[in-house]
Amino acid sequence: MTSPVQLSSGGAEPLAQGYGVTVKIGRDLARVQVGCPHQNGLIYAAPGERSWVCSDELRPAHALAGFLRELVALQDPRVSALMQQWGLYYRSLPLEADVDTGAEPAA
To answer: To the nearest whole number, what is the mean pLDDT of the chain?
Structure first.
């Protein structure tokens, strides 16, 4: 199954074929292809020690959100500087269950 993410800027033309973010979900493995004219790569999401809890369809989101949450929590100045150089920032959001109960987000 392929679930392309459509990206555009204010009604601009659709992105060229192969560019943007495309998620391809298979059994026990998902591939997240990220590409533009200047960078191109694949991120693989497989069941792991902390990512097995989600379904195949949600594993890429679970793994990326968890990884980024823990990476930022390291508070390593090298990671912070690298993320800032690339214009990447990550903030954990409350889980739906936490919003319903008013609880703090899980650590």
So the answer is: 85
